[in-house]
Amino acid sequence: MAVLIERVSLVITRRSISALYPGGWNRFQFDVAEHCWCSDEDLVSISFTDTKQLFAFWDDCDDTVSHAGPRGDPYRLEAHPVDHLSGPLLPCKFLVFQVLRLDASPALVSVASFKTPRKRVRHVTRIALSELAAPRGWQFEQSASEAGQQIRRGWNSLPPGH
After folding, report:
1. Each residue of 99-139: pLDDT tens digit?
2. Which residues does residue 96 pair with via DSSP β-bridges, in sequence order?
3. Is the separation of the CB atoms in 113 and 121 below 8 Å?
4. Which positions ≥6 away from 115 have C-beta within 8 Å?
5. C-alpha 25: how far from chain center
6. Residue 70 pLDDT
7. For the sheet containing 79-83, what is the strand order?
8. What is the pLDDT of residues 129-144, one digit of tens each?
9. Which of 7, 45, 77, 158 makes a 20 to 30 Å CA pair with 62?
């Protein structure tokens, strides 16, 4: 399965939420209820309209979980910012970013999936809606994914040299 990436999203591993977030997974779900978010068995994707909101939320999460580890290093959630048009904003070892066709339609969606040494990454060109973790009630029409597809089309129609 994969999580939907819209606008700019903070992708967090569920294992780090369960291990580090006070109250674990249940409390985290309560705390992010007002945000646009989705999750699969490995990842959580929380969408924001801009990077300022994303980084403010990320800082709040780090403040919530910050306590010293065995070597005095602070524990941090495994989290990573991802843009739905350009992909990860920083190098990341735990996720794979892809732009895929949704079902048999020409609709494009940006997705992230969890990458581990034991889990083989599927390089595919399409994803079924049933394989995509998306926010409750999400529809492609009038979504950030649809707007992103129009932007991508615009990139492809630029005159040479631009």
Report:
1. 999 988 888 899 999 987 665 555 668 899 899 999 999 99
2. 113
3. yes
4. 93, 94, 95, 96, 121
5. 17
6. 56
7. 36-39, 43-48, 8-13, 79-83, 87-88
8. 899 999 999 998 888 8
9. 7
The phi, psi pair for 132, rounded to 5°, reads: -110, 125
81 Cα distance to chain centroid: 7
Distance CA 87, CA 135 (A): 19
Separation in Å, CA 55 to CA 25, 52, 82: 21, 5, 12
Tally of CA atoms within 13 A in the half-sphere of 117 that contains its CB: 0
Q: What is the pLDDT at residue 119?
A: 57
Alpha-carbon 115 to chain mean position? 13
